[in-house]
Amino acid sequence: MGYSFITDATDTNSPFLIRDYLYKELSPILKQHRPIIFICIGTDRSTGDSLGPLVGEKLKYMLRHDVFVYGNLENPVHAKNLDEVLNDIRSKFNNPFIIAIDACLSDIQNVGKIFIEKKPLFPGMAVHKNLPPVGHLSIVGVVNISGNLEFMVLQNTRLYTVMTIADAISRGIYHCILKTVGGKKNLLDNQIEGIISK
Known about the structure:
Elements: E1 5-8, H1 14-31, E2 36-40, H2 51-59, E3 67-70, H3 82-92, E4 97-106, E5 113-117, E6 137-145, H4 150-155, H5 159-181, H6 187-197
Parallel strand pairs: 2-3, 2-4, 4-6
Antiparallel strand pairs: 1-5, 5-6
Helix pairs in contact: 1-5, 2-5
GO molecular function: peptidase activity
InterPro entries: Pept_HybD-like_dom_sf (IPR023430), YyaC (IPR009665)
Protein name: Spore protease YyaC
């Protein structure tokens, strides 16, 4: 499968590689003042499926013009409310560029890796849920191995693995937006950086 971008979350350079890739993709969109929406999909009720809400939690204070984040630990975006969230976005934003973020399962050699593709995400595939495709760009983190009983695999995923991936993705996104929008870091930015680094 030909992914546009792959990095290992344990690589200390992974946030900067994500930043540079997203900067290349998002700069033209932000220059058009087209809203960019990050939809962080998942639920905090399952460790393996909590990647999206954790990324959203780390980014929820990222106050930037034309950049919006849906999905965090308090208000997750999941199978039961995904349609409602998508309808809300369509009603509020004109021609938004949507980036979907979710956890996935794969082969053992891919655990801990982050994949970015220039195509929609199909959430819920690992647990055989039929949900609508989401986004123009997709970011997925491999949290565990695929196989039988995917639901149980997600329930028994190491939180450390999920947190490592969430840290890399959120830091990459944050620094991409900071680089794209420009401006000096202020007190709020320093507070955000502290939250993301935790």
